Amino acid sequence: IMENDDLILPKDFPKLKNDAFLRACHGQETNHVPVWCMRQAGRYLPEFREFRAGKDFFETCRSPAACCELTLQPLRRFPFDAAIIFSDILVIPQAMGMDVQMVAGKGPTFPEPLKEPEDLLLLQPKVDVNKELGYVFKAITLTRHKLDGKVPLIGFTGAPWTLMAYMIEGGGSTTHSKAKRWLYRHPEASHKLLKMLTDVIVVYLLGQVAAGAQALQVFESHAGCLGPVEFQEFSLPYLRDIARKVKDQLKESGQDVPMIVFAKDGHYGLEDLSQSHYEVVGLDWTIDPRSARERTGGKVSLQGNMDPCALYAPKERISEIVKKMLEGFGTRGYIANLGHGLYPDMDPENVGAFVEAVHTHSRHLNLK
Ligand code: 1CP
To answer: What would be an example GO MF term here (predicted)?
Structure first.
């Protein structure tokens, strides 16, 4: 598809009409609590399955027009307050020279995962992010234009530890024992790899902002298999480094782009995460809203955290659960979301009920 020239340049973007999400990131007042869902562009939508049918997953990721379409699909159905660019966290290991395939029924698979520290020599030492990941930047620019200012566009990345875990495990894992073996047996090589990933991630996130991303989320999806000690050594310093470096660069050009850190099952690190230069801390459903507020001491906005499986409940029950969640978090400095992504068997109607419940109850609570 040939796009109009105006749509490929990251400038003259349409004016933003709904800034509730960005205001909430900064802890400012909003009329309603903004809401979006992790994996809102996904297989629970019939139009997503139809569009993706027969196409290779990472080929789809490399097509800016396809990414734009998939990003916009959920927004045509639901009044979400933010869009998240369709892509995947595993495009970074690909950019560093690793082969990653999406295997149906199995998920992402690395035919040749990293096995021993010597394998680090097989990775690209200097990644040309613009060349290797320019397709993501193009997708972001096109989507920001096509969104027409409806809602802000979120860019994202996987965090270093989560990406390292995939690169060593070669795919999903329940124990992450191969990757954790590195932490205990090869700590130096682990830090070397985490540092390499951090360097690429910083350039990648800055490229996303230059392309038009209006917020950035860092997914530490595998925080849960680390304990507090390993988290302190192998995750937190890199999460902090990423936020600090991205922010320092953005400040130089006078830009202010809120950053969200989502460390799934990293409840032991909540205090530290709230002091890591991110405006927003994302929460999974294992954390009670009130205790999350207490433990983060009003220092950050919070995002989350309804159990995705609550979407299997009848709509009236979803509405009650949402009301409790809003009362627990309060309506200020809060972005409603699920505690993790939507699953493919979820009913879009119930996703709609979730979004509506957030908007309705929060407007009501704000009037009290
Ligand atoms: O064919 C398909 O459609 C496969 C399903 C799918 C989708 C829709 C995958 C495979 N990735 C994606 C898109 C995706 N991935 C988005 C798009 C934007 C949106 O949220 O709407 C995002 C933000 C991601 C990020 C991602 N990929 C994460 C972090 C979030 C999380 O879930 O914790 C992770 C861990 C991945 C890896 C990945 N990609 C796909 C799968 C099935 C997995 C998980 C594999 C595993 O660990 O078992």
So the answer is: uroporphyrinogen decarboxylase activity
